[in-house]
Amino acid sequence: MAATTSSPRRSPGALTAAAAIGLTLFASVMLFCSGVLAIYRGIMAITQDGVFVATRDYVFRFHVTGWGWVHLCLGVVAVAVSFGLLAAAAWARVLGVALTALVIAVRVLSAPYYLEWSLLLIVLYGLIIWALCVSGRGTFPGLARRR
């Protein structure tokens, strides 16, 4: 006789919790990576104005050093929010959505300079907002209790 093995069935609640953990982890890692890149971009713009392209015929005129400070501040906040998401802090989820929406606005303003890069980041930030909105709160402490 052949023995049959059945794969364990997961409850819908367990699948939802696993998806929430994965989405929150995705949002946290993406915010951390984009925050670090924004910090580097900000430092480059502050120290060397010649690194970025400037267009004369653009409606919004900003000095490159000013853009550098904006990127530097947003990057530092994004890194802090990513650590808050890993700690399952409720403030981090709310601030993460607000910060990501603000960064999308910054990307729209920089689209005439770097169109493809701005569009790619707008899509990425949209995914981060989606991940933060659909996943439940307090997901990482639940993972620690189940193991």
From TrEMBL:
- Print the keywords alphabetically: Membrane, Transmembrane, Transmembrane helix
Record's InterPro entries?
A: DUF7144 (IPR055568)
| Any coiled-coil regions, as ranges | none
State which residue ranges cross the membrane.
12-40, 66-87, 94-113, 119-140
Where's the DUF7144 domain?
24-137
Q: What is this protein called?
A: DUF7144 domain-containing protein
